[in-house]
Write a structure and sequence with these properties.
By secondary structure, this protein is α+β, with helices and mostly antiparallel strands. It has one domain. The protein is built from seven helices and four strands; from the N terminus they run αααββααβαβα. The chain has helices at 7-10, 17-21, 46-71, 110-132, 140-163, 175-182, 197-221; strands spanning 82-86, 90-97, 166-173, 191-195. A four-stranded antiparallel sheet has the order 1-2-3-4. Helix 5 runs antiparallel to helix 7.
């Protein structure tokens, strides 16, 4: 090992530990790497909302058009204006519903009934959009449920604007319906109020919304996992 002082020592400078180890001097230290920019915030797809709503809307319009052409023929006998799908349980028959579910407000004056259902439909559409824009990526049930309700609401809304009533044609009878009706009325019937594809979409959508509400509450109530 040489006893001669280093060049820096000869110049009156005390060498640092880094200098002795061969590391670059502080002034030559590399710049710290820049942090990666945060990812873009997630937003629900409005194209998906439009696509699912449109499919349910087209299905509703198509089936209602078929029902009007095939079943709403006054000159034909009653048997020919009714299509039996499952004997004594499921049939297609044309009906005009001026009211809401179970004929709600069907006997009310049109000057009251029509604006009421138009306002309810518009309020439902606004509510659906307000919920959809707040969707989280994990809310798959709600992601499908809201467009189904929107498509169904639009289908029935168009009927009310065009005709002043909603076209229904799906006629269901079953023993369990009689049991349900007996809870509310005496001499209950086994007949479910006639409905359409828009109603099916709305019921399916509301069911998915209920699933989302239940699962979201369950996740909130779940105990937090212990941290390491």
């Amino acid at each position: 090992m040489s006893d001669e002082p280093s060049a820096k020592a000869q110049d009156g400078q005390i060498p640092s530990v880094a200098d002795e180890a061969g590391a670059p001097p502080r002034g030559d230290a590399p710049e710290p790497a820049a942090e990666a920019p945060p990812g873009k915030p997630w937003h629900p797809s409005y194209a998906f909302l439009a696509a699912v709503s449109l499919v349910s809307l087209v299905a509703d319009f198509g089936t209602k058009h078929w029902a009007k052409v095939r079943l709403d023929v006054p000159d034909q006998p009653w048997d020919e204006r009714r299509v039996e799908v499952i004997k004594d349980h499921l049939a297609f028959t044309f009906a005009r519903n001026k009211g809401g579910a179970w004929g709600l407000l069907s006997d009310e004056n049109e000057a009251v009934r029509k604006p009421f259902f138009l306002l309810v439909s518009l309020a439902a559409i606004v509510f659906i959009f307000s919920l959809y824009r707040k969707l989280a990526p994990t809310q798959l049930a709600l992601k499908w449920g809201l467009p189904l309700v929107l498509g169904g609401a639009l289908g029935n809304l168009v009927d009310r604007i065009r005709y002043g009533h909603v076209i229904d044609f799906i006629d269901v009878r079953a023993g369990f319906i009689r049991s349900l009706n007996s809870l509310f009325t005496s001499g209950a019937s086994d007949h479910w109020p006639t409905f359409n594809i828009a109603d099916v979409a709305i019921v399916a959508g509301v069911g998915l919304m209920a699933v989302d509400m239940f699962t979201s509450r369950k996740q909130k109530d779940a105990p937090a996992s212990p941290t390491a």
